[in-house]
Amino acid sequence: MKWKEMKNYKEHYILVVNGTFSDVTLSWGSVVALFYVACRFVVKAAEINSVDLVRSIINWTMPFIRKTCILTWIREQGGWGAIRSYFGTPTWQTVGVFLAGVLTVGLVLYKM
């Protein structure tokens, strides 16, 4: 199904997020996966110029983060800075992915 033809974005989003976290214990990989899924949905919403949908995606994500205690887990791991130990020393590929993420956010903000 094409993004523009989808009728219930929230139901689809919740299914994808819950599927991502089913049978998964919290790890940096699962945290990154959540933010990746949210980012993909936000980019798609921006492509159809739906600022309201972007806001909705953020509002759907926050209760999930609270329910799964992701913020508490991140604090227990030493905060966001501890993610470096999970991914190791940055390589050019890591830097490239990071820059691609920054460009994506910039593009989304520019289009809005």
Based on DSSP secondary structure assignment, what is the total number of beta strands?
Answer: 0
The helix/strand class is: mainly alpha
Largest sheet: none
- Helix amount, in percent? over 70%
Describe this structure in words.
The model has no long low-confidence stretch (mean pLDDT 78). The chain contains 6 helices and no strands. The chain has one domain (3-111). Helix 2 packs parallel to helix 6 (92-111). 6% of the residues are buried. The protein has helices spanning 9-21, 28-47, 51-67, 70-76, 83-87, 92-111. The protein has 112 residues and is mainly α. It comes from Danio rerio (Zebrafish). This is Apoptosis regulator BAX-like isoform X1.
Structure at a glance:
This is Apoptosis regulator BAX-like isoform X1. This protein has helices at residues 9-21, 28-47, 51-67, 70-76, 83-87, 92-111.
Fold topology:
Elements: H1 9-21, H2 28-47, H3 51-67, H4 70-76, H5 83-87, H6 92-111
Salient structural properties:
112 residues, mainly alpha
